User: What shape does this take?
Amino acid sequence: MTVPSSARPLVRFGTFEVDLSARELRNKGVKIKLQEQPFRILAALLERPGALFTREQLRQRLWPSDTFVDFEHSLNATVKKLREALHDDAENPRFIETVPKRGYKFIAPVASSGSDLEIKVIQLPVEAPGTASEIRRTAKGKIVAIAVAIAVTVTGLAFTTWHWWETRTVAANPITSLAVLPLENLSRDPQQDYFAEGMTDEVITELGKLGALRVISRTSAMQYKGAHKPLGQIARELNVDAVVEGTVLRSGDQVRITAQLIRARPEKHLWAESYEGDLSAVLTLQREVARAIADAIQVKLTPGERERLAGSHPVNPQAHEAYLLGCYFWNRRTEEGLNKAIDYFQQAIEKDSNFAPAYAGLANVYGLLGFAEYGTFAPKDVVPKAESAVNRALEIDETLAEAHATLGAFKHRFDWDWHGAETEFNRAIELNPNYATSYHWYAVYLASMGRLNEAVVVANRGHELDPLSLSVNTGLGRVLYFARQHDQAIERLSKTLELDPNFPVARYWRGLAYEQKGMYREAIADLTRLRTLSVSPLRIAGLGHVFAVSGERGKAQAVLSELKELSEERYVSPYDIAVVYSGLGDEDQTVRWLERTYHEDRGSMATISVEPMFDSIRSDARFKDLVHRVGLPQ
Assistant: This one.
């Protein structure tokens, strides 16, 4: 339903006109930019022109009782913004008069329209004293009083109509999903990009804790950094109802975050506000932003969510800055970046030994280096450090969803604590239902336990939350590969490579999926291309396996020799050797090297029960015994 312009509730005063249904302020027909909260105050004052609107009444109108806000400061700042938009002066007001310690009045004459009745309130000239004049003034005074009363009534009805229409629109088209676009670095200093990215990440994390919302994860959101696309197009690409965009400016020890919430269809500004504070209060600022957005879209918060958003504590600015730098380099996923991330996370811990996110970040880096897909270290050299860091993070702050997800991955891959792993993944999802990595890792766990249908569902959920993430897309393709849905795996991994043709992990798993389809030429092409992208023993082994099953046994033997020579320079898991022997059909050597893997590289054993490359020896009693000892279902 569209409200015809002739029926819209309009209020006019001076050269200004307020369209209550469109929530627009115009001056001589030109639209004036006015943020949501100042507009709400204006609408409230116009509801009863000339009457006192107390500060408490405004608080109830703007900030519900369950909203945590510095009311006095926020109201003063909001009224100041409204006066600036109206070119009004607090000392000599034309429109908004301050009643000290009580509230505000709208003192200008108004005219209202939006129905068949249109009332104009006119100030009358002062007449010379005299009996006739006094009589006329008395009569006209009564007329004016009646006119004012009617105008007030019409304005009130107009406001009520606007408020009803606004509430009805929100209720009919609720916002259930949104994306926080990268906050723009207003300093224009590229050296401060890490700070803007960090602020974006942390606002996403705060909003992600709200179970009623689907919030796009940071990896997908960051794809739009510097992009000049219409917001509607971005919303369609990410499949969200609304987007948040804004800026961040750091100046010395002060930070200012400005954000606005925009509905995508139809495109409409719903809320905008600025928040300022010193760096030690940055977590409070981020939570204020999240609470304001939740309020603007009328999200129902659980008591636990309300408590988490209300709680905050000061942070050590130097520790927080080092942490943000660590996250910046961690997110690059390069070997140099991971080393820098370790350095910065350790610096954050040195500055503040109780800064839990820094321990969680350190655990993530060490854990990644211990995984065969990425790692360059023997698990025994990095996994204990990773587990120590994540346990310390949770000792300090048990509510860190990211730390619970990381611990779940460690319990799955390195400890073979299957029940404990699932408990941690579920706890992570409970604390932050929008953290895509939790679903990504949980899906691999479910696959390893033989719960393949569940794994695909959970992996798809992670993909919904982070549709442009290379890792999450690849994770979905990997789970489809484990589920023997090779056509779907190839399709998903191909789409991942459209995002980045040089992403090695996606190319590795697509190569293996091609092999399972008997498409050896395509498999060899993918796995050969990998050699120009990264020198990973696991990926070299995958090529050796394809050579072997496709009949090129001489090339497979050459890969075996290469891996053994490489092991003299860097860590090569015995699992990689087993993969090649499996392709060659040598069951004895395959089992022998898997036995060594059992004692040396527990992480690589976690998915052997569903790995198609071992289907040829699945009936071997020795292999079954290995699977049993790991604790996996047969």
Summary: Residues 233 and 264 are 9 Å apart (CA to CA).
